[in-house]
UniProtKB/TrEMBL annotation:
<dbReference type="InterPro" id="IPR012312">
    <property type="entry name" value="Hemerythrin-like"/>
</dbReference>
<feature type="domain" description="Hemerythrin-like">
    <location>
        <begin position="28"/>
        <end position="146"/>
    </location>
</feature>
<protein>
    <recommendedName>
        <fullName>Hemerythrin-like domain-containing protein</fullName>
    </recommendedName>
</protein>
<feature type="region of interest" description="Disordered">
    <location>
        <begin position="1"/>
        <end position="24"/>
    </location>
</feature>
<dbReference type="Pfam" id="PF01814">
    <property type="entry name" value="Hemerythrin"/>
</dbReference>
<feature type="compositionally biased region" description="Polar residues">
    <location>
        <begin position="1"/>
        <end position="10"/>
    </location>
</feature>
């Protein structure tokens, strides 16, 4: 009988530990999706300020968008994409994502060098927004589901990604 009660006690201890681990924080994909949502909101805010012709306001938001996207892309390229590449074996999908990042970074660099009253400023922001929406759609409908199916260590990746994101954000301030 003592053996039975020990085996009954062990699963009871493991179960709360597992749920506590999951409750401790989001997984890597949830973090990335949260970033996507944040940037979408910022793009909407940019559009409102642009319509009001609030140059200073839209430039502030544009710089925030550029910083968020730069940090997000770096974390994906350094941590998430290599793990996904090893787990899902979808080189075409990941190669395309990296090319999209490179193009977005080029647009970001152009925007950061421009004056907010430049007639091309809003156009570049619009193209960046559309480009990011396309990229996000592919990640969320193709790459992320494949990554979940592959049973990647998404919780472990999340911890690594959050640490790296904090480092990158600290470098920007």
């Amino acid at each position: 009988m003592p053996t039975t009660s020990k085996s009954n006690a062990t699963p009871a201890r493991k179960s709360p530990a597992k749920s506590a681990t999951k409750a401790a924080g989001p997984d890597a994909i949830t973090l990335l999706i949260d970033d996507h949502k944040k940037v979408k909101k910022l793009f909407k805010e940019y559009e409102k300020l642009s319509k009001k012709e609030d140059i200073d306001g839209k430039v502030d938001i544009a710089h925030q968008i550029c910083e968020e996207l730069t940090v997000h892309a770096t974390v994906e390229e350094e941590i998430f994409y290599p793990a996904a590449r090893a787990a899902i074996h979808a080189d075409d999908l990941l190669n395309e994502a990296e090319v999209e990042h490179a193009t977005a970074k080029d647009l970001i660099a152009q925007i950061q060098e421009m004056s907010g009253d430049d007639p091309m400023y809003d156009a570049r922001m619009k193209v960046l927004s559309e480009y990011i929406n396309h990229h996000v759609e592919e990640e969320e409908t193709e790459m992320f589901p494949k990554s979940r199916k592959a049973k990647m260590d998404l919780e472990g990746l999340a911890v690594e990604m959050m640490e790296r994101k904090e480092e990158l954000m600290a470098e920007l301030t």
